[in-house]
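input
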Amino acid sequence: MKGRDGRFAKSGLAPRLRRMASKIILAGGTGFIGTALAHRLRERGHEVVVLTRRPPQRRSDGAREAQWDGRVAGPWAAELEEAGGVINLAGSTINTVHNAENRRRILESRVDPVRALGAAVRACRQPPAVWVQTSAVGIYGQGDGCCTEDTPAGEGFMPEVCVRWEQAFREECPAALRAVVLRVGVVLGRRGGAYPLLARVTKLFLGGAAGDGRQGISWILLDDLEEIFLRAVESDAMRGVYNACAPEPASNAEFMRALRASLGRPWAPPAPTFLIRRVAPLVMRTDASLVLQGQHAVPARLEAEGFRFRARRIEPALRALAG
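output
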């Protein structure tokens, strides 16, 4: 069954952990994932404080905002005192042309907030019990093999960003805190991320595969990602690195085939690699590597620990989003 936003209804298909409500600090909580997660945390009874670079605003979800610059500790750091946990989602979009300036911004926007949070946590008399840090499955680079949490980092810009991101977290997170790293895949939801753009393109009968279509898409439905974050905050058993993606990754060709079917569109011709390399930076204002490269990551640790995904396969996930 589907619930709000075309999602699968919350019918007990994933672990429901009952923990005492606490204050959760959500860094970078004004984007697509952060907004949804703040709402879910509030539903579970947690007090949520969102760290944001913009002036604090009144929110309809009941969360409270505190301003920070994402670089150094400031008055916002007092919010971490006696908090139940901190979740760090901060990082500027990678959906841009990866020139020298944008590469610097992408890296600094991930490493600097980790450094700032680390300094704030170490200054606490009673620090948060858990720090949940995001990373990305892009750490594995380009490849056809199946990537588990034990797979070594790949080569290229995005693997380098993820390695330095996680290294900063290891250096900054005190040993006394329970540390969780979630390597997040391509998040699918109606209100943000990759899905709205891909759906629009497909509705215009342009939903063909990109290049040879073999590149992997390690995707996850927003519902499932929210539950993984909740589990990371509320379950003392979660520690270390986890792939936060669906158990059955899809190739680009499989993904686009399922998307066309969910939207009632016929076969569309693939977009040639040379055309994508030219069009992506000039027309789409993004980097061609984001379209032409990918990996097949699987959530080996989550499955071993009994996490039950609502959406394991791409076809029902896209049907749910299509409504």
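quick obs: The first strand starts at residue 23 and ends at 27.
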